[in-house]
What does this fold into?
Amino acid sequence: MRSFPHGRAAGCQTPRDCLVAVVLAAFLVAGPGEAIADVKLPKGVGPVGQDVAGLRVVRGGVVAVPLVATAPGVSGSLEYSIFEEPKFGTLGEITIRDGVPGARVLYRPSEGTAATVDTFKFRARAPGGRYSSPATVTIVIVTPRPMLEIPERLDFGKVPMLDRAVREFTVVNRGDGAFNGEFRLPAPFRLETPGDGKVSVPAGGEGRVTISYSPQGKDGKDRFGWVLQENNPRGQILLLGERFAPFQADRGQILLEFDGESSERRSSLQVSNPGGEPIALTVVAPERLRVDPRQLRIDPGAVAELAVSLPATDVLEFSTTVELRGLYHSEKIELLAPAVPAQVTLSEPGTREIQFDGDYGKNVSGELKIKNSGGKKAFVSASVNPPFYILEGQGGQVLEPGGEFTYHLELRPDRVGLVSEVLKVEGGDRPILVPLSGHIVLPPGMEAPEPRREYPLNPAGDGGVTRRSIPTSYLVVGKAETERRTSDSVPVVEGVKFVSGDKRTLVFGWPQPAGGNWDYVVETEVHRIHEETKLPHPLWIELDSKYATVTKKGARAEAKIVGLEPGGKYTFRILTRAPDGSFSPASERLVFVTAMSTELAGWFRPWMVAVLIVVGVGIYALLQRRRYLRELYGS
It folds into this structure.
């Protein structure tokens, strides 16, 4: 048992003091193991120790325990001693502080103890006097625990992709234990400070943490809930960031479209800068592709335009990628250039007219060379009226891209003098019209031929209407008065047959192509004066419902044409129309001739009948009178 004197002791002055001393001595004589601490002095006799409770100490730490006792009627300082040692810790020396009542002792939990509560007892006495009953000190042993405090959220704002934004915040440890943790954040967030990812904050201290945000991918938002300390809401932080491309193209694909004026394929691309800083871009594309400009600088909020084209000599289908390359971000854009449409032109562009001069009775030859300067196949056909003839290729042939073909022509003179016609070549974006002219002279000694009379074609056909066999000739969009968008997937009308007709109407039919709900358009050919050549050239115009009616009857369709004139020659063709508004190539040329009419005009018939009756009656009366006079006079 430890005792520490503090001040003077008081002697046995009264009988009460002696009685107390005797009682204490008796308990002391009882020897070890007796519950001396349970002895209670009479009230008012000696000092009284005060129990201590509610003290906490962290494992591995130390706590100062105040020892306090009161002694009524006792002057001076008291002496304190430990009556019962703690079981799970150790005590230091008891000390007093000048001018402060009581004493103090340091308690330290034993290393490795798992106890959560420890107690010890102390007593007090006046110097040389009697001890008080033992007072109990209860200490709660707690495990040291950090308690972090960090911001609730860290917002990086809008950051261009592959750029970098940095934010810093403070970690405060308000707990009684040190914090140690090792972390690795998921992309696009990164722990910059501490660089090794180990966050250490002492108890009651604070530390600085730096995080970077480097977004990548498409436009969007990033968020991550970072938990530094579990089971601690104030030890969690929400990381936020919004990513966007430092530049934006107005579309993800560049489609080069054919320009009929320049024969080039062209397009443009607009690139905008939605950020707050100027950007510089380099355009990476094949040399085959013309790009203007190849270096772009775009101010914040501005838009730059990129012109892309292929030269007119480049006609084949082409695909590639155009890369917009910036400092932190690059973007590849697909480019498609469909093949240039078939372009049938003259091999010798300066050809204005082909001359055929010769003698009557001898055929005169000539030729015309054409080529396909487009990037797609061309189905080419040519037509001309007598006395000019095409020796080969009139029925049509296919010209590959870059291919050429020569038409061999012949003038078969059927009269003496000047002759002229127009050769029409179809298959490109517009027909080629070449004037043909000839000067036919009569050789010496030959008599001039009799003038040739023109007769209707087969005037005695069935129903007054006949069909003339004409070679197949397909026309493409742009050859008619009405421009049409054609498609190879829309079937061509074939197998047209005469059905019925008279001198003013005509009906012909054809089997409906399979594979769709088709409609049909009927066009007729007229002749107009060409502005350049001043010669008549054919033009196709659509017949409206006033003149043409198409009806569908099961697997067949029929067209009824009205408003025809007797003895007229008419040329038609039919186009199939798909539900999407696209058309097939035209059918073959259909030529019909109506028979001559011998009927009299409607207003003329009643007057003629009346005149004939009057004339007949007059003649009959005259004959009767002559007969009467002859009988009368005997002559």
